[in-house]
Fold this protein.
Amino acid sequence: MSLPLIESQKPGVRSLEGFSTIGTGIYLRSTGEQCQDTTLPNVILIFGWMGAQLRHLQNYTQAYTKLYPNASQIVVRCNPNVFWTTTGTKQRRLMPVIDALEALHCFPSSSSAEPPPRILTHVFSNGGSLQMTLLGHMLRRKYGSALIQKFITSTLILDSCPATGSLKTIKLAFSAVIRNPILRIIVLTMLYTMHFVGLGLSLVLGKRIMVMENLRIEMWNPHVLPWMGLHTPRLYLFSRKDKLIPWQDVTRHAEIAKERGMDARCELFEESEHVAHIRVEPERYWASVQDIWAAAISKGKVEDQRLLT
């Protein structure tokens, strides 16, 4: 039995304000002009958390529009069925993201007259992380090492992620976005089965095949998106009160990233719930975002000086 596409968005709300719908759960705000200030991002890529409603994502898109008005934005939603949909289907759904990035001159196939892109990527929770890592696989297959070999000013913001995940957090996460009790039981039964099958196969085969554990490992790749590298500053935003993503898991992930040579920074909140830090401390939240982007710009200037000498 194939499960339906689960939409948590209220009927009548079809898109983000100021955005065009370019695919299933994918939205684009294109400024149609080049950002002349090279200290600001010109492309912002946002991967929403599982089941995120548009009205919640709009809190971030509107803030980014105020901070960086000349930057184009791409928003990718994460429907709960990302956890059981076939890889081929998920890839087809993400193709409009690649088309939009190409139209925004983010890749080598673009006109050589275009200046290098400056890309800010903002990822929410494990759902957004799954979408981002899949997009990364697709881009690396298409472009190979062409982007990895090129210095591109970029930053990666990780909001409430990543974590390994447990049966308890799986239940909490899916119960929050699937209101229909019958469908919730079906989905949770299937996910529990997948969890135990994956655990058993991992023990038998002697290698990790658990989805969330593999996700954490992939997120340690400095080229998780091919324009990123060791030079890309990472900002982990997380909270002690998050019931879905334990703060200890995020702290450990950041520590290992540092050990592997990445520029990983942490902003630990005390009172906010999962992906809700801007509700409690919005000024601190957006100041941290601007600071990490400033760090990316500083690294870009150092690279420019190196190339000139």
